[in-house]
Design brief:
Length: 515
Amino acid sequence: MTGRMDATGPTVSGTPQRGGWFDVWPFLLVAVVIRLPGLASRPLWYDEAFAVLFSREGLPAMLYGTLTTQGGVAADVHPLGYYSLLYLWGLLFGTSPLAVRSLSVLLGTASIFVAYHLALELFDRSTARWTALALAFAPFPVHYAQEVRMYALLALLVMGAAWFLVKAIHQPERVGIWVGFGLCAAAAQYTHNLAFVYLLPISMVALATRKRGIILRTVLAGIGAIFLYLPWLLQLPDQFARLQWAYWLEAPGWTEVLQLLVHYTGSLPAPAWALPIQLFVSLLSLCLALLIMARSVQHGLKKARQAGLILWLSVAPPVFMVGLSIWQPVFLLRALLPAAMFFTMWIVWCFRSALIPVWVRRSIFGLLALSYAVGLYGWFSYQGFPYAPFETINVYLRANVEEGDTILHSNKLTALPARYADPELNQTYLADTPGSASDTLARATQEVLGFIAVDEPNVLLPSSGDVWLIMFQQEEREYQELGAQVHPVRAALEESLTFSGQVTFGDVVIYHYQD
C-alpha cells in the first residue's frame, strides 16, 4: 500500500475533494460479497429471533410491549426505529433468515458508502478508497452487517450525522445539509438510546471551527433533532429505570477495554490461538498510529487536525460509556461499532502518512490484513453459544415427542429461536428470575409475542406424558461454576420423573424425562 499524504490540505472548514459513485462501487460490491456467506445457513440466535418475532407484530403492539410499565419500569429498553424498519422490510421480503439479514447487509454496506464520503470530505480520494476497502473486510462491521439487530443501522446513521455535519461546515449556507444532520441525529436516537454518546462528540466538532455561525447552526440543528426525538425522550426515565431494576450489563474493566481494542482491528468471537495475534496487532497499531499522529502535529500537517477529529470520534464514545457506567452500567461493545469504523478511517490515514517509511507502512497493513483474516475466520466458523441448529432440534422433537408430552425450555435463550424456527410446535419456557440480571423479557413483551413463560417447572408436570427439557450446556456450566452439581430445573424434574437419556445438538442438550 503506497501513496503520499501531502503536508497541505483542507482544514475542517476547507474545500473537500470530490468523488463519484463509480469511484466507490467496487468496494461496496466487495463488501456485499464478504457479507453473504452464512446469511441463510446460520441459525438465528435469541436477540435475532426476538427482533423478528417482535417486529412482525406491528407498531401498536411493539409500543405496548416496550412502553408498558409495571412499578415505574418500562417493559423494554430499546426504541423502535430499527424494529419498525424491520417490520416494513418483512412485509416486502418476508422474515426468513436470508430476508431479514439482507436488511443488515444493505445497511452495513450503506454505512461504508457514507464512510467513504466522510473520508473524502476530510482527507482525499485515496484515503477514502482505502477506508472503504478496509471497512469492506473489517470483521467487526461484517459481523453486525449479518445480524438481525439495530447496530448496522446505528452505524449508518451515526456516520451519516458526521458526514452531514462536516459537509455543513464546508457549506454552511446550505440549509438542507443542516436538516440532514438533524434528521440523522434524531433517527439515530430512535435506533438506540446510546446514540447520544456519538451525537455529542460529533456536535462538538463544530467547536473546532471556532466560527460562531457554524456553532450556532449546529446548536439549532441539534435542537431540531431533540424536538423530533421528544416523543420518545419523554419515555426514557421509565426505560432507564428498567436498566437500574434489572439488566445484564456490568461495569466495564480492563478486560472490556482490551476486547474493544481487539474489536477495533479484529473481532470476537475468535479461536483461542488467534487472540494473541489480534491483541498484538491491536496494541501495535494503536501505538504506531499515535506516534504518527504526534509527528504529524509536530510537522504542522493541516490534515492532522482532521485526523484528530476522527480519533476523537473513535475514542470519545467508549470513554463516555465508561464514565456513565460508574453510575449505571451501559458499556456495550456492539454499540461501539460506529466508533470502530471511525477508528479504521483514522488508522488508514495514519499509516498512509508520508512520515513513515514504505516498509513500515506495508508491514503494518500486512499485520492488519492478517488480523482481519483471523477475525473473519473466527466469525464465519463460530457455531457455539448462543447459536444452535434450532430447525434440526425441532425436527427431532416432532419425530420423538408424543401427544401429552411437554417441551420445556429452561429459559428464553433457546425458546424464542425454537419458536421462530417452528411456530406451530407446542413449546414453553421458564420465566427469568424477577429482578435478576437476565430478567429482560417483561410480561407485556411476552404478551405481544403470544409466548408466555411459566414460573416453575412443576406447573407443567403432566398427569401422564414425558418432559423434554432443552437448555444450553453453557447454562449448565455456569451453574456448576457456582457449585451446583445438577441444574436446579433438572433437580426439580427428577423429584417426580425418571431421567431417560439425553441428546446434544451443538451447544444445546435435550434431556428426556419419563413419567
